[in-house]
Amino acid sequence: MSATATLLAALARAVGQERVLSSETAAAPFCEDWRGRYRGRALAVVQPANAAEVAEVVRLCAQAGVPVVPQGGNTGLCGGATPLPDGRAVLLSLSRLARIRALDPANNTLVAEAGCTLAAVQAAAESIDRLFPLSLASEGSCEIGGNLSTNAGGVHVLRYGNMRELTLGLEVVLPDGRLWDGLRGLRKDNTGYDLKQLFIGAEGTLGIITAAVLKLFPRPRSQAVGWVAVADPAAALALLDRLRDVFGERLSAFELVGRSALELVLRHIPGSRAPFDPLAAWSVLIELGDPQPAMDLDAALTATLADAAGQGLIADAVVAASLAQRKALWQLRENISEAQKIEGVSIKHDIAVPLSRIPEFLARAHDALHAAWPGVRIVAFGHLGDGNLHYNLSRPAGEDNAAFIARSAEVNRIVHDLVDALGGSISAEHGIGQLKRDELLRYKPAVELDLMRAVKQAIDPRNLMNPGKLL
Asked: Strands 109-113 and 208-215: what pairing?
């Protein structure tokens, strides 16, 4: 019996024959990323049901010297969960690890397995009258393990932080198959290195997260959502400062949307309606929340926006008058990525710069790109409240898709060099994966890369955990 056949037989004994997909046809849906940009091959797709089975699968693969690629909901945008084309790796699907293990309202925590969808975790929190605040457009299909591995942020980082801030403890399978139980729901634990932070944002290159202790918060009993037209990003920042002064921590989201992004949603997403006509060059989506049901945030937001309009800070505004209107305004923001996918291929950037430099970045990037590529369409939107922009390019009308994508490296150099010059990051919340692995070498200081490689060597010396990603 060949080494491959021996391993596949051992994996079948560990998780059940029906949970080892070794045919290329059965494995194919797992081997292509959501955007269709990366396609790989896997020795097999293995679907364990619990952490013990994950540990046994990793142990068997380590014994055989076979790499492991962990995958959750496969909604990533950087190819981080897609195996390489060499077909050497076992793809380990974590979607069956979908239990909420514990709910603790007194401690404001829950324990979720890695395969729980984000929506399922939100619902579990709601069942005990709590809020899990991470919110993404893909929350119905993305999974907690993937959110952790990329340190996901979403629209509420402004108030609640990203996954690093929302996680108290982890359970992780290490590269040799050992299971580390770090599921401690403590706000204070000063007993050495904070090991969980090694695995959050590591994209499965150091180990496989199987469960997490997540922080919960009081549910907002009163909310307000508004859509505001502003003249430019500098005016949006001034409005952000005003709202922070007035509302403090009640300000939970502050999203910037360029006109081209909104136009794509109105064109491609049925039922979408413009907040006002004509469309503004820039818009801001605002959300306020408070745990007190008697708080009239709609009136407070309306009054604050009226005052801002009177001072020339904003051009127009609408405040949602019902839950349905709030959802409709949020859909305009959340459907941008889907609308751009329908429109066609795009060159995407997930960047962060200091808030004070955002207007400068947008102006300089716009000028540089249009000088190099007349007719290119810039689709800019994102989480202005925490400095994270999704700065995407759609092809000029009539240009061939292949020719457009072929210019990715040229475009990346313009955008990423500018981001770096402004003290920013080339990846804010999507991770590095395969897409930005080589870019990281250009922008990370050598000492940081040396430290990252040292950590990788210490924990995964044979490079069996998600090879070809991040480093």
From this structure: antiparallel
